[in-house]
Amino acid sequence: MNEQALRTLLEQVRCGGVTTETALQRLRLLPVQELGSARLDHHRSVRTGLPEAVFAEYKSAEQLTSILEAMLSQQNVVVATRVNPAKAELVCRELDGLCYHASARILTGNDQYIEKVEGGLITLVTAGTSDIPVAEEARVTLAQFGHATKTVYDAGVAGIHRILFEAELLQQSRVVIVIAGMEGALPSVVAGMTPAPVIAVPTSVGYGAGAGGYAALLGMLNSCAPGLAVVNIDNGFGAACMAAAINRAHDHKA
Amino acid sequence: MNEQALRTLLEQVRCGGVTTETALQRLRLLPVQELGSARLDHHRSVRTGLPEAVFAEYKSAEQLTSILEAMLSQQNVVVATRVNPAKAELVCRELDGLCYHASARILTGNDQYIEKVEGGLITLVTAGTSDIPVAEEARVTLAQFGHATKTVYDAGVAGIHRILFEAELLQQSRVVIVIAGMEGALPSVVAGMTPAPVIAVPTSVGYGAGAGGYAALLGMLNSCAPGLAVVNIDNGFGAACMAAAINRAHDHKA
Amino acid sequence: MNEQALRTLLEQVRCGGVTTETALQRLRLLPVQELGSARLDHHRSVRTGLPEAVFAEYKSAEQLTSILEAMLSQQNVVVATRVNPAKAELVCRELDGLCYHASARILTGNDQYIEKVEGGLITLVTAGTSDIPVAEEARVTLAQFGHATKTVYDAGVAGIHRILFEAELLQQSRVVIVIAGMEGALPSVVAGMTPAPVIAVPTSVGYGAGAGGYAALLGMLNSCAPGLAVVNIDNGFGAACMAAAINRAHDHKA
Amino acid sequence: MNEQALRTLLEQVRCGGVTTETALQRLRLLPVQELGSARLDHHRSVRTGLPEAVFAEYKSAEQLTSILEAMLSQQNVVVATRVNPAKAELVCRELDGLCYHASARILTGNDQYIEKVEGGLITLVTAGTSDIPVAEEARVTLAQFGHATKTVYDAGVAGIHRILFEAELLQQSRVVIVIAGMEGALPSVVAGMTPAPVIAVPTSVGYGAGAGGYAALLGMLNSCAPGLAVVNIDNGFGAACMAAAINRAHDHKA
Amino acid sequence: MNEQALRTLLEQVRCGGVTTETALQRLRLLPVQELGSARLDHHRSVRTGLPEAVFAEYKSAEQLTSILEAMLSQQNVVVATRVNPAKAELVCRELDGLCYHASARILTGNDQYIEKVEGGLITLVTAGTSDIPVAEEARVTLAQFGHATKTVYDAGVAGIHRILFEAELLQQSRVVIVIAGMEGALPSVVAGMTPAPVIAVPTSVGYGAGAGGYAALLGMLNSCAPGLAVVNIDNGFGAACMAAAINRAHDHKA
Amino acid sequence: MNEQALRTLLEQVRCGGVTTETALQRLRLLPVQELGSARLDHHRSVRTGLPEAVFAEYKSAEQLTSILEAMLSQQNVVVATRVNPAKAELVCRELDGLCYHASARILTGNDQYIEKVEGGLITLVTAGTSDIPVAEEARVTLAQFGHATKTVYDAGVAGIHRILFEAELLQQSRVVIVIAGMEGALPSVVAGMTPAPVIAVPTSVGYGAGAGGYAALLGMLNSCAPGLAVVNIDNGFGAACMAAAINRAHDHKA
Amino acid sequence: MNEQALRTLLEQVRCGGVTTETALQRLRLLPVQELGSARLDHHRSVRTGLPEAVFAEYKSAEQLTSILEAMLSQQNVVVATRVNPAKAELVCRELDGLCYHASARILTGNDQYIEKVEGGLITLVTAGTSDIPVAEEARVTLAQFGHATKTVYDAGVAGIHRILFEAELLQQSRVVIVIAGMEGALPSVVAGMTPAPVIAVPTSVGYGAGAGGYAALLGMLNSCAPGLAVVNIDNGFGAACMAAAINRAHDHKA
Amino acid sequence: MNEQALRTLLEQVRCGGVTTETALQRLRLLPVQELGSARLDHHRSVRTGLPEAVFAEYKSAEQLTSILEAMLSQQNVVVATRVNPAKAELVCRELDGLCYHASARILTGNDQYIEKVEGGLITLVTAGTSDIPVAEEARVTLAQFGHATKTVYDAGVAGIHRILFEAELLQQSRVVIVIAGMEGALPSVVAGMTPAPVIAVPTSVGYGAGAGGYAALLGMLNSCAPGLAVVNIDNGFGAACMAAAINRAHDHKA
Prior knowledge:
homooctamer, alpha/beta, 2 domains, five-stranded parallel beta sheet, four-stranded mixed beta sheet
């Protein structure tokens, strides 16, 4: 029962075409399924303030192609994450207007529909060069969502002066995303240098005990610095969504 | 070498009391330690935008008393977390003007110095009643930091209608903190209902496999909902700091 | 907005006291919260077919007393699990009509309101004597829920003939709950001997590697026997609920 | 010693051809091995109420072919699980009358011998589209076992209205199987909406911390909703067997 | 149906008091339960060659007292393991003729019924002094089971000469039990020095990563030396049983 | 300094060709290295009673060929474990007289030099057919070491009668090796049926939680049956060595 | 057989009092036990260059007293670690001349026998104040071993300037021990600032995921900075021994 | 602002070209970024005393080629670790003067610029032959860093005499690196035989429980021998850096 059907029902009650009890009966039976749906089933972008993005990891090239074709035609901004090069090539052969970001493993399109967000600056920091693909997943996602970003790559704690140089930028950022593998120590340092909320992203860079990002994840969860929260290992997209939610809240207020 | 000492040195250079080389020597040796310090060694609250808080877990009643005495006299807002009842009683016997929040296990004081933050509403949601102490740690901390909060306690997913009732509130919040133990599913549901950034706090409520908060933590890190980040198990204070950082950023802009 | 309020609103639409658009507005804003609630907010027992039970682990004696007092006066069957002896004693001092099952750590009351379920027999099997408290938690819960149970205690696999003696009983049961710690092997043996669904409950009995019930839990999850599912470690109450749900479904059909 | 041999022995006792003591000796030595076998060694389907199914994971195409050939000729319903496409192709080249269900990775045959079970409806729910293969393993298995199923795919908690729409179906089901990866939260929600027993199946969909299905498994074991039990990660077949055992018990009674 | 009942039945068949078919019916129904039991239900000591021992960990002083009272009166050798001092004192107050081995945490009695095993020497080696209680649990158990033992305590690998001094003894032993916590390296060294089978017992001595005996357990499972098997952490009793089984097999042959 | 060299030195001392001090000097400097070596550096087979075996996992076909060539020419019994088919083929192309056991993944040779051990029977039991390769690794190894073996394959606990049939064989065995994956329950059942020492071998057969053999390993370590010890996951060779050590000890005595 | 006994034996060979064969026999039987011992059985302090220290954790006050009494009388430097206050008090009541270091939980004595090591400076750095007890365990141990130490306590990465101030000291140290709990990030920063070898000590300070020092341990093992090695959680004594070994090597050379 | 720029600024202050306040302003704004950098941003080799090395694991052949080309032309000693054979071949095709160490998986070059370190001997010990690649990574790295090394390969604890033979060498070494997989017991034995600091390197050699190097890692962390610290699994390079730092400290003093 969508809004139109509900209006019709109420009109019928008003003009006597349907009795109060009959209307009550229908409303009692259906509210969650249908009114509930009318309320909740808006596009997720309305409800959560985030554009739809396609998680392509488990989708075949064919499935991905048909989904993106629809998004392109509906004038939605396109973001498809976790697209490996082979899949990207197959999709791009079929569809025009897509751009493949190899490091980020993202396909984008319909950039003309990006709405600039009037928020602050989102700064992305990585500890090493091996962490850059995860950072790029976040950066490209944020760009498609309309957010301004800056990047500080390869500024890990074993050469601590590198991040100290960026103190000013960190102070000016609205949100800082810090991406680090190995011991995952950089977010603690950064969170001690800025009033901005820090989103820490552990990466699976590393080996031996704690490999697969576990050392970094545990380190970040145990950070002694306040103003920091964590997303899952290698989850650049998730960090981008959190940053966007923070920055949109910001935007919203203005 | 603080700013005054630096000015004096430069004056001496200017008037010839110190040679260029001598000044260079002193500046070359000391910059990080001292100029760096002049820049970095502001109170942490200036650098990170968060008031100082005392983590009392490993401190004796005596140590805690002397720290809080100093904070009270310096007209700082007082927040001491992880204070058990016995320690609280000992401290309150020594010092006037402290208030003990038993559920939150927090001692507060100097509330007259709280500066109201001009941000939005921070909503705290718990899945069960056993999660309330962690939520209270966050709520009391945020109150001392000057943020407005609302609470929705005991709205877990096994009775899904309970959180659905709060859809409006969730839509209006600037930040939502969701605290849940057991399977930790609530943050995913909430993040699907609001544009606000969601800070998920796993709690150690539960037993058997995944006890100690691990099931909840892993569930939250694996959330399929975007716009969500996680702090450590039972870390209500950490969630409050992240929320404050987000809300301050907001405030900052205005 | 409960059913009465909805009827009133529809009446007002019908008689023109409220315009269609106004009614639509109210219905659009509220359906999930209120109509949804009207639909969903029945007592959980109506929705899930299981009586309410109180999980007392994290509740103080005072809290537990006031909850049970209300349940007793509302003529609900009373089941409060995870009540340690000290808490039980305090509660029983305050309230009449409660019975404490020490091994099961359960408080029961209002037994006169138990409704017998017309289902089959639920058999509880334990591997050792140390597993009996968990079995008793399940047995007492099922008794309060109105189910018929039989018990076969101390029939572990190191003396395999003990369970073989019970082949007939296992064949006749509608549901079998098997409770085992240590290596947790018994559910596999039982599931190979009966057409009934087997609910496996690992217990925290044991020591060394795999202590805390992990060896038993993993063993049960890896069972090579079909027709078996698992609940959390020591979760006798959860096993009872699953068994009740199975047996009720049975009952329902008749 | 099968039943015939036992009868012969008793006849010999009766007619004096064998003394009581000799018979006693033979019976004392052999009962478990032989009488026991006569009793126990029925086809597993008689003992456990579940048709035989072939777990093909570790079997070569040759081994699988010869097993299935025998089953086909013996007029048994054929279910072979965990058959990858290459193996399926090899087997189907050799044997007629098999059907390969690619998503479920199951080979079926002899459908004409399926005996319809007079039980209720078994509903299969998945959280995401990536969980569908595990659900299909359960669904195809149940179909071969003669059970009626319905499916609700892609109804995860990040869009909570999707499962709310299915409240009526959940209420009418005899058994509900809920398949979910990531945070594994859906079974808790479902178990709060239905009186039916819920079988929760964690899937290995996901990445980072808790990958491989561990986050989902732990979440389901820690579910705060009663009436729910869990099978191993990706174990669609195991869930089907448990559901069949529950539904057969049902059938049995009628 | 015990042996006597079976004889009676056969007699009845012989004399025509029971028909062949009736006897067949009774035998077909009962064999596993009753004949099976007649065969299997010997005292465990007959079936497995090991005397009964009481695992007292989860038993109250009252329960333990009544079990031991029975064992004492039945002229069984008494071994009760995991008896803490308080429980031991309570039991010894009630029963005469028990001896408490404090380090081993074992109560023994009826030593006059110990049957000497005609096997070889069982040597117990510990790495450190902290491992001695576990070794003593094994030693006292073996003494009650009638086996000859020698001990080499405090011969860990950080002073490798200590175990080298015992090369001769190790060569002469029939079984060697090596008990070690920390890194658990000693069993590998010992297994390289003797033809005897080595039973490795990890102990929970240690701290930090790998505490609780996990480092030792994993080390022993990964031993590069052949002729070595492992029992659970701190399981001195289990090691004794394995050693006894090996040594009895030996004895048996003679 | 081998025994011969030592004798020569002593002869020289006796006849005055070497002074006492010179001899002392040589003996003082070298004892561990040389006398120690004379004592310790016998072929491992002398010291530990086990023939040399080659662990081929990490060796190239070339390395393996040259090692086996030497062993063949030195008239040693050849056992090379963990040889994959490709490597086996390469080696067999180079060397005559080798036999490849595909299921066991073992290369053997020089069988004419096998010395029969005068011990008892070693019985190998597997729970499933997938466990057979590990059992075969043990069986072939034992054959090369000169031990008599029998096998009972596919006798897992979900069809408990299968192992009950073998009660007699289990009673007659000197050692029983039980190989099981999944829940690893079979060793407990077997250890309750025989006086022989039971060596439990967990296998990596299984999936989901506890995969890789962990569920089986933990189950076996937590076995409630006495007279059982465990080797590492899939370690058929290790089990064979332990069984050989037990059986040799036996042999030794005769 | 010590050196003197060996000389005597050789003399007897030389003068004919003992035949070559008899001498050979004795040397063949005993070398490892006795010559080996003569070589290896020096006091550990001679062999490893480290004074003896007593690990008191598992020792009773009585045991500890008698050990320390002997050490005091033998004019050994006394270091007993892991002595809790109660045990310390009991011991000190019995023995004169001991000093209890409460934070370090160490008893020391016979300081007059400390030999100053001619090495460099060992600097101890902690991240937080809660890490100080572990640092003190290292510092007091090093003092007893004769090494010069400096301490920099409470210099964690969330206030990165604190460690930057100490750049000069770090450059001048021969060894740096860095003690940190929580995320354990400080050793990476320090190792990037000094040419000295860094010994990282994780502490069990922290809570939630990674508690007990695991997050810190994994972080340190995964450090991206070279020139760093790790000891076990809270193992201040172990760090001191490693530092002493490094610094002694240094000393040795001079 | 480098040193030259700072000198210029001070000159300008001296001669009045810049006011004190202007200079102060520039120094206050920039110190960390620029003076800090001037101080800290020396080549890492100056700051940490270790030459640069390239971690090639995550670098493409193209990236690696360009980095090494630069290093070769700048007359730096070249060490690139974790170079697989395919990548090595591609790089060597492009660049002259590189040498590939296949076992160590290292590319070296510019050996003429190696500066010999005047330290002691660094001895590398492995437990088995499978551990040699990790040892070679350490050995080749140390050679490029200018350190003298000796190797003792295949001296594991199951044949304890092998390491005993090397007692003299161990006594003479300045640093000992012990590389071991499986149970990782060798470092404890070695640390008990030498005054030198021991760096323990667990390797991923092994299988089953504790595979991937975890058993060895935990064993080493729990070593009962003092004077030992640990690096991450398979981290031969890290061990070399630690050894170099220790040996350089040594060198430094001379």
